Amino acid sequence: MTTIEKPQSAIQPVQVFGRKKNATAVAYAKKGKGLIKVNGRPLEHVQPEILRLKLQEPLLVVGKDRFAGLDIRIRVKGGGHVSQIYAIRQALAKSLVAFYQKNVDEQSKKELKEQLVSYDRGLLVADPRRREPKKFGGPGARARYQKSYR
């Protein structure tokens, strides 16, 4: 377990965001007791239940002891259930890396980053794909209305 070396007053909170499609999750990490809350609820109460394991991936990959010394509050809005879950997990992983960069040391930040990227690059790097805007002449972005010759 890495101990936080700086004096109490020098430890600064960090704020990062994670995005997936139209969902945006903003994570605020500060020194604390290891609480992680999403929209005011503990991580264990996030719905849907099936996707909860996806949320816990950053915790399981780097170990819960890395999260023991900090509290993370996450606000998420926009998008659907799945994209919100992916935005939350990205914000969680990015907040841990940013906190270690700002308050611990560069070496442990590099180790964290390597662990997370080797497991899933999507934990730290946003997916650039976005919804394509609808055009006229059809019901969607590419689909056209049916054409009749008679």
UniProtKB/TrEMBL annotation:
* Sorted UniProt keywords: Ribonucleoprotein, Ribosomal protein
What are the GO BP annotations of this UniProt entry? maturation of SSU-rRNA from tricistronic rRNA transcript (SSU-rRNA, 5.8S rRNA, LSU-rRNA); translation
Reply yes or no: does the keyword Nucleus apply: no
Q: Where is this region: Disordered?
A: 129-150
Q: Can you name one GO molecular function term for this protein?
A: structural constituent of ribosome
Q: Which InterPro entries match?
A: Ribosomal_Su5_D2-typ_SF, Ribosomal_uS9, Ribosomal_uS9_CS, Ribsml_uS5_D2-typ_fold_subgr
Assigned GO CC terms: cytosolic small ribosomal subunit
Look up the domain of life of the source: Eukaryota
By sequence similarity, the record places it as follows: Belongs to the universal ribosomal protein uS9 family.
Q: Which NCBIfam families match?
A: PRK00474.1 (NF001749)
**Protein name, UniProt field:** Small ribosomal subunit protein uS9
